[in-house]
């Protein structure tokens, strides 16, 4: 009886050890999975930071000018992720942007994996539907998403677009057609609009 007791006790301890090992292994896998890849793209005297998860592109912004915006975004949505410099993983995204800048492609056809509120995502989806070489206004975007009185909220969502250029917020103008409201600066916004105008002329 005593031997059976010890055997049962040992079996219980072994089972607990194995369960604990699997739990730790699972947590380790989760930690390893929470990685964001990044790289930089230098184009026309501007340096862009590109960040992607294993599911797709989640951030494009100017390296220096958008640094505070990226830190805010990372703190809100990617606290448990670690950044890993990985040019190989980012090559497809960099090439997509280069093709756009060079006028070879009219859209950034890569997987996206951005984070935001439901309202923001609704606005960003509307931005993606603006044709290449065309422009619209904040008021028109508000009407498009059936929120005609939410122009200010729409403008705020556009200002928080995490994927500059890829989600073409540069195609949104003021009510009177003025070029305004671009996080990366008015000069770059004009340059992007000029690229598209030249290719559609």
Automatic annotation (TrEMBL):
One of its GO terms (molecular function) is methylated-DNA-[protein]-cysteine S-methyltransferase activity. Gene3D superfamilies: Winged helix-like DNA-binding domain superfamily/Winged helix DNA-binding domain. It catalyses: a 4-O-methyl-thymidine in DNA + L-cysteinyl-[protein] = a thymidine in DNA + S-methyl-L-cysteinyl-[protein]; a 6-O-methyl-2'-deoxyguanosine in DNA + L-cysteinyl-[protein] = S-methyl-L-cysteinyl-[protein] + a 2'-deoxyguanosine in DNA. It comes from the Bacteria. The keyword DNA repair applies. SUPFAM superfamilies: Methylated DNA-protein cysteine methyltransferase domain, Methylated DNA-protein cysteine methyltransferase, C-terminal domain. Residues 118-197 form the Methylated-DNA-[protein]-cysteine S-methyltransferase DNA binding domain. Keywords: DNA damage, DNA repair, Methyltransferase, Transferase. This is methylated-DNA--[protein]-cysteine S-methyltransferase.
